[in-house]
Design goal:
It contains 12 helices and 9 strands. It has 384 residues and is of the alpha+beta class. The protein is globular.
C-alpha cells in the first residue's frame, strides 16, 4: 500500500481530525449526488452553502468574516479530499477569488463581500481568459471605462470556472493603456446586473460537474467603488502575487489523483483474472504499478515540502511553478498507465479511472499552461 500521505510536520492532530471530518462529509453528502451534477453540468450554489455551514468552504478566512482563521493547509486538505471523490476545483477558484478581496480589498469591500463568500451565499469566479488570449494576461482587451462614479465594461471572457453559478466575479479588465500597468480588477455582483450575461456554458472533455462558461459584458455599469483596492492599474500585480498559493491549489489535487489512480489500479488488478492468474501477478503489471507508486511517493513528498514552505511564508515562485507543471504532467502520465492496466474497461466511463483520465487533461492547461510554467522557471535560472 502507499504510505498514508507521507507524514509531515504540518500534519498535526487537528488537521488530521479536520481531514477525517471533511472526508466523511464528502462521502456521505456530496459523492452520492455527483452523477446528477455531471449530467446537469454544474453543482448548485446551495450545496456549497451547506458545505460552508460545516466550516469546509473557506476555513482559512479570518473569524471576523465568518471563517475559522485556520492556516492555508486546511483549504489544501479540502482540495485533496474533494479530488479523491472526483469533485472538481470549484471551491479552489472560489478560494482564490476570495483571497484577492481579503488581501487587496478596502475595509468596506471586505465587509461587503467576505461574509457572503465565507457563508456560501455567493460563489465566486475569476474572469481573466478571453477568446483572443489565454495565458497572456497582458493582452486582455475587455475594457472598463470610467464614467462619473461608474465603470462601463465591454468585452468577453471565456473558460470561466463557476461562470454559470457565480454571484460574484473578480474581473480582469483594461482601465488604462496596453501592458500590465493598464490592468485592474473590478468586482461584479452578477445577480440582475444589466448588460452582463452568461453567453454559453461550455461542453468539456472532462470535469463535467464543474460549470465553465463564456461571459459577455455589454455596457455593464459597475460602481467605481467596486474597483479592487480602490486604485486603478494594480490588477496585474495583484494577480501575480497570489501565484504560489494558486499553484498549490492545482498541485495538491494532482497528487491526490495520482494516489487514487494507483490505489484503484492495485485493487482492480488483484481481482481481475487473465491467463489463469490475477493481473497483479504478471510482472509487467507489477513493474508498472511500482513505477506509478514511486511517482506518487515523490510527488507527495515534494508537495508536502511546498505546503510547509507556504505556511512558513518561504515558498518561492519557482518552486510553485515546478510543483504545478511537474505534478500535473505526472498526473496525466500515471493515470494513462493505470488506465492501460484496466484494458477495455478503462475506456468505459462507468469506471472512475476513465473519468479521471478525462478530468486530468485540463490540469496541464489552466492556472497557467505548463509551457508557461517552464518558461518562468527558466527565467529564474537565467537570473541566478
Amino acid at each position: 500500500m502507499l504510505p498514508n500521505l507521507l507524514r509531515h510536520p504540518w500534519m498535526d492532530e487537528d488537521i488530521e481530525a479536520f481531514r477525517e471530518q471533511v472526508r466523511r462529509y464528502i462521502e456521505g453528502e456530496l459523492a452520492p449526488q455527483l452523477d446528477g451534477w455531471r449530467r446537469q453540468g454544474y453543482i448548485p450554489q446551495k450545496v456549497w452553502a451547506q458545505f460552508a455551514e460545516m466550516g469546509y468552504l473557506l476555513p482559512e478566512m479570518p473569524e471576523v468574516f465568518g471563517g475559522a482563521g485556520a492556516n492555508l493547509a486546511y483549504q489544501l486538505v479540502v482540495q485533496d479530499e474533494l479530488t479523491k471523490a472526483e469533485i472538481p476545483a470549484i471551491t479552489a477558484v472560489h478560494s482564490i477569488a476570495t483571497h484577492y478581496i481579503l488581501d487587496y480589498g478596502t475595509p468596506e469591500q471586505k465587509q461587503r463581500w467576505l461574509p457572503k463568500l465565507v457563508s456560501g451565499e455567493m460563489i465566486a469566479g475569476i474572469a481573466m481568459s478571453e477568446p483572443g488570449c489565454g495565458s497572456d494576461l497582458q493582452a486582455i482587451s475587455t475594457k472598463a471605462r470610467l464614467e462619473g462614479d461608474h465603470y462601463v465594461i465591454n468585452g468577453a471572457k471565456t473558460f470561466i470556472t463557476n461562470g454559470y453559478v457565480a454571484g460574484l466575479i473578480v474581473l480582469a479588465s483594461r482601465t488604462g493603456d496596453k501592458g500590465s500597468r493598464g490592468i485592474s480588477l473590478i468586482v461584479l455582483e452578477t445577480e440582475n446586473l444589466p448588460g452582463y450575461s452568461v453567453s454559453k456554458r461550455l461542453e468539456k472533455l472532462g470535469q463535467h460537474a464543474s460549470d465553465t462558461a463564456e461571459l459577455a459584458f455589454d455596457n455593464v455599469r459597475v460602481p467605481a467603488h467596486h474597483l479592487l483596492g480602490g486604485e486603478a492599474g494594480h490588477g496585474f500585480k495583484q494577480l501575480m502575487s497570489q501565484l504560489p498559493y494558486e499553484r498549490m491549489l492545482i498541485a495538491v489535487p494532482a497528487v491526490a489523483a495520482i494516489e487514487r489512480a494507483v490505489a484503484l489500479t492495485v485493487e482492480y488488478t488483484q481481482q481481475r483474472k487473465a491467463f489463469g492468474q490475477a493481473l497483479y501477478e504478471l510482472q509487467n503489471t507489477r513493474f508498472k504499478l511500482a513505477e506509478c507508486a514511486t511517482t506518487a511517493h515523490i510527488a507527495r513528498s515534494f508537495v508536502n515540502d511546498c505546503i510547509q514552505r507556504l505556511l512558513n511564508g518561504e515558498l518561492d515562485d519557482s518552486a510553485a511553478y515546478m510543483a504545478k507543471w511537474w505534478c500535473t504532467e505526472q498526473q496525466c502520465k500515471v493515470i494513462d498507465e493505470c488506465l492501460q492496466l484496466f484494458g477495455g474497461y478503462g475506456y468505459v466511463t462507468e469506471y472512475p479511472i476513465a473519468r479521471m483520465y478525462a478530468d486530468a487533461r485540463v490540469q496541464r492547461i489552466y492556472g497557467g499552461a505548463n509551457e508557461i510554467m517552464k518558461e518562468l522557471v527558466a527565467r529564474k535560472l537565467g537570473q541566478a
